[in-house]
UniProtKB/TrEMBL annotation:
This is ABC transporter ATP-binding protein. GO terms for molecular function: ATP binding. It is a peripheral membrane protein. InterPro entries: AAA+_ATPase, ABC_transporter-like_ATP-bd, ABC_transporter-like_CS, ABC_transporter_ATP-binding, P-loop_NTPase. The keyword ATP-binding applies. Keywords: Antibiotic resistance, ATP-binding, Nucleotide-binding, Transport. SMART domains: AAA.
Amino acid sequence: MNPRPDTDPHDEPVIAVRGLTKSYGGRRVVDHLDLEVHAGEVVGLIGANGAGKTTSVEILQGLRRQDSGEARVLGLDPHRDADRLRQLVGSQLQSSGLPDRLRVGEAVRLFAGPRATDADRLLEQFGLAHRRRYPFAGMSGGERQRLFLVLALLNRPRLVVLDELTQGLDPAARRDVWEAVAQLRDGGTTVLLVTHELAEAAALCERVVAMGDGRVLDQGTPHELVARHGGGVVVAFTEQARSDAERAAALQQLNGLPGVTGVTREGDQLVVRGGRAVIAHVGAWLLTTGRPVPPDLRVHVPSLEDALLTLLDTPTTVKDAA
Ligand SMILES: Nc1ncnc2c1ncn2[C@@H]1O[C@H](COP(=O)(O)OP(=O)(O)OP(=O)(O)O)[C@@H](O)[C@H]1O
């Protein structure tokens, strides 16, 4: 990742949330949430449906009010200072829409405030310069999302909030939008990204906050979360041993390989678990012992999805609103 020149560790956080709580009809959906985002960070908020991500982000944007706890955005109160914050925060909300007949150029003029940057440059940057005269209805899903990004960035925001940016996009359009967010990240913009796409969080975010039941379950770099909760690497294959003795010897040898934390037999398969090095060592073992590469050789490297599933599986206590 590129250095973030405007990041000063002594700066007040761009987002500072302490003990944030919100209930709907007696059910607590945000439960003493603590969250900090610093200048220049790209932070991903992930979690199951109903974890409270959107509610939290809407409180930060002054669209809802918390029951208790403190939220500061750029040192301001999102509810009391909503007007000032609107100038400073660029938002792309979950169900963004524009009138069908509104053209790209018109949308940009409509949304431009006193702090607006060069819209032509932004349209160019996000590959929409040739679409200026297009109506919203005529744009593809990817183009629409890129237009929302342009509109979110138009007034030179100090924070950009993106909620389900790539929902419903095909893989190519998603890639385009990811690239656009990577440009923001590399330009030093502070981004809070709410997403279900864990590959998106892993690709774009330097820090990921996993939420469940309105609380932070854990946070860290994608790599840290995978290391803590993803479970180890698994290498599985059918061992073609000719005798019980040969099978037992194979098991013992595999158990002794560097980084191996366990070898189990599952049906005909041997399942070797451990750190990443296990992939290389099992491969080397197969070759040096003169074995052919097993046709069913399978390697599973844990992902952010594995980590989140483990985190969400961790039992939480049932709670009622106070
Ligand atoms: N206005 C509302 N009135 C009542 N319940 C609500 C309201 N808004 C949200 N909820 C409920 O609060 C819970 C948290 O919703 P929220 O949208 O914040 O979660 P989320 O993590 O963003 O979920 P998703 O990933 O599905 O968008 C959900 O159970 C939702 O149904």
